[in-house]
């Protein structure tokens, strides 16, 4: 899923989640899909883009407000996935939260 941010005249917020995976699948793919589906139903969710190359992954989610991001962070199912991620799926990760002020693109 991706977001067409051209629909939004106001600024919005971006969560950049970069991670390095541990060995083994251990149900990661299924949980990632469950979390994406759940996030897409949260208040203020605008979209998501994700890429993974071997162990390195980057997922970018787009939100209307910081409050929406905070609500997603403490969502019960999301919290359970975060705990499992620390125990089983990730060697490391970093979360960056940014305010998007401007964007532009090119499409052929």
TrEMBL record:
Taxonomy, superkingdom: Bacteria
Residue span, ABM domain: 31-82
Pfam families (UniProt xref): ABM (PF03992)
Protein name: ABM domain-containing protein
């Amino acid at each position: 899923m991706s977001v067409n941010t051209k629909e939004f005249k106001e600024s919005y917020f971006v969560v950049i989640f970069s991670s390095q995976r541990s060995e083994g699948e251990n149900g990661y793919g299924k949980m990632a899909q469950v979390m994406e589906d759940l996030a897409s139903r949260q208040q203020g969710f605008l979209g998501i883009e994700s890429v993974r190359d071997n162990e390195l992954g980057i997922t970018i989610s787009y939100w209307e407000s910081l409050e929406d991001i905070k609500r997603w962070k403490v969502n019960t199912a999301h919290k359970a996935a975060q705990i499992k991620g620390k125990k089983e799926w990730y060697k490391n990760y970093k979360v960056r939260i940014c305010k998007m002020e401007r964007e532009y693109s090119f499409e052929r």
